[in-house]
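Appendix B. Extra example for self-study. Work through it before the problem class; the solution is given directly after the inputs so you can check yourself.
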Amino acid sequence: MKKIWLLLMVFLVTFSVLCLGIDNRGAEAAKAADSGKGAKATCQTCHADFAAVIPKGHPAVKGSDLTACTSCHAPDQTGKAAKNAFSSRMHLAHVAPKGNQDCLVCHTWTSGKSFGLKGVKGSFGAPNKEDVAMMKEIFASWGGSKFMDNLHAKGNIGCAGCHGKDLPKADDTVENNRCLTCHGPMDKLVKKTEPKDFKDRNPHKSHLGDIACTVCHKAHGASKVYCLDCHKKFDMKIQGEKAP
Amino acid sequence: MTTEEKDILAAKGLSRRSILKGAVAFGAVTASGFALNMAMPGAAEAMIKKLPKKWDETWDVVVVGSGFAGLAAASAAAGAGSTVIVLEKMPTYGGNSIINGGVYASWDDKYHYRNNLGLGVDSPKQHSDDTLKGGDYYNIPELVDVMVNGATGALNWMIDEGDAKIRPTVTRAGGHTAYRTHSAVAGVGREYTEALRKMAEKRGAKIILNSEVTWIWRQDADPKSPVLGLEVKRGRRVLNIKAKKAVVLASGGFSQDIKMRMAHNPRLVPEFNCTNQKGATGETIRFAQAVGADTLQLNFIQLYPFAEPETGILDTPAVYPFNGPGYGIVYVSKLGKRFVNELERRDVCAFAQINLGANMKPTWSIFSRPMVLKMGGSYEEIDAGVAKGRFVKADSINELAGKIGLPAAALADTINKHNKYLEEGKDPDFNKPITKVMIPLIEGPFYAVSQWPAVHHCMGGLRINRDSQVIDVFGSVIPKLYAAGEVAGGVHGSNRLGSNAMPDCVVFGRVAGTNAAKEKV
Ligand SMILES: Cc1cc2nc3c(=O)[nH]c(=O)nc-3n(C[C@H](O)[C@H](O)[C@H](O)COP(=O)(O)OP(=O)(O)OC[C@H]3O[C@@H](n4cnc5c(N)ncnc54)[C@H](O)[C@@H]3O)c2cc1C
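Solution. Structure tokens for the complete assembly:
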């Protein structure tokens, strides 16, 4: 029993030292990235040894920068509506609330021109300052909110899973077809939420016609059953409705 | 005005007065690019606005609102070859129109139902007379003229080109002297919003949701100065949209804007329920005022007398009390007594209930199965309503009274008397004009539906002319600015007759869209 406590203490102390150090080293890494375009992401400032962070049974990793990972885990640039465990895990570990790294530790960015990954060819888009500020804000929500974005994060779904290939814009929305790739087909969804007593009180079969999923299901804000705006007495619940 | 804003003005050697006075002078300083703003100093809208330096999007015709009026305008303008965008702030399209009861007043229709069913005579003139009388002659006659003469054509337009379907009957509703109220097969306004949406999209118009108009751009109040475009909030983005030909405001009424409705009609306190969708607020009227538009009759706000008593929604059962009077429906209080001539106008029916006293909520409509189809209803709707407890069904009046908690003897007495009045063709209690097609409550089953007034419709709004152009405070047309539907005022006077809003919206939407498309680029 004593041994376990001791181990735990050691772990906690090491962990907090690491955490305290992270900010600075992250900033340094970002600075290094800024000064030289195409520079490599120096994972080593934090991860002296990748063995500590890779899953059990993972083959040994050589190298000290991001390409050590991306050489096998090639970033998905197709924007499929699918899980992306690697990208999700990397982002979850490095953005708030778990981590606190600046995007530019791993990413390259020339405002309004390009946005990519260090050591990897290609650009995901051309975000400007506001776009990046928004992505940062939304990433934080994705990483730790009580909203639908975090529910997706926990299921290894990142931005591209819903928004597709291009980086999301400030007025981006998600088309129903995208949601239905995983949550469909529509008939199945309708059946699932069909009330036993009154079939017409089905949130997935509105009298308002073919409405967008996002009318009720909000990714980066509180979801809300739209029906209840007027039909105040209906008993309907939705996931991700709580404020963080 | 905040001190900061005042400082900016002072630095430029301008005062608020000089802005208002110096419209022409202002024109001379276009380089500084200020936008016209007549908003009250200190109001949120009163800040100094700079005209946009660049436009994010450009369309021939920009329509605000995706209800009957907006979609009709979009169909007409796109049909005439213009590029058209419809901006809707809500995440769903259709506004109040898609949830509306689907009843449409028109003296005729392509199937000539009134005539073929032997329901008497009618004409645009008779429709106009009723509308003017129902509005206590506060209506602007030329606007009524446009509505009554365009109503049948607009209905047939949606049937022929949008595949809208109507039920094979016509009813006589409160304030109307003829059987001219048509019901939609869907039983709700969606029948027509879908028709119009398809027509608009087929002709190339784009409907964009989640796009809230936050300003109308106009440089100055010179009568020659056109509206230039709109500021729009879409998601987290603010963008400016240029209208090459015209802006059509079709943003509906403001029944859900409690502050605005009480500013004009203080007795419409927040405690009143409201039948409208959440987005029925008045900001576009304020924006239009801020660029010089005139308004009229904003205090004329209608209560729907028969809304669902608890939530105030106008669900399918709540349309029955409105459609029933021409066929003999009876309204009774908790005491089992009639309180009004059922063929009265909405304001009379609403205040007859309110005047019964607050603890007299709800009142009830009593009708029977033989009336259902004639009054534009359907047995499916009846069965669904009974299952949900909205309609109460019984085989005798006695049993019905027991089920809804009314004194049975009083109710039986009221119904018997009313049956006798129908037979004798005379209503000594309330002077209802009895007609031969009214059905006495003898043969069951009998039904009851509960009802209570809720804030419903804004008769007042922006001042327009017969071409749907918005008029400024000095009486001049504001170039390239149109308004149609509930956002415009003057068609209905002090009280809108039920089923007159649809022809108003579709007809004026069509007029606005047609004229907008004719504007020079
Ligand atoms: C429940 C109900 C039942 C009714 N039943 C009938 C009936 O059976 N027969 C009849 O004749 N009349 C009926 N009426 C009245 C009639 O439906 C309305 O007057 C009519 O629908 C108004 O149409 P509209 O196109 O002017 O506005 P709406 O249909 O209300 O559309 C206006 C749209 O503009 C949008 N909007 C507002 N502000 C902005 C902004 N700043 N930026 C972008 N978009 C904005 C709104 O969200 C809304 O979607 C009913 C009304 C209600 C509420």
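Self-check: Chain A touches chain B through 23 residues (CB under 8 Å). If your reasoning did not lead you there, revisit section 3.
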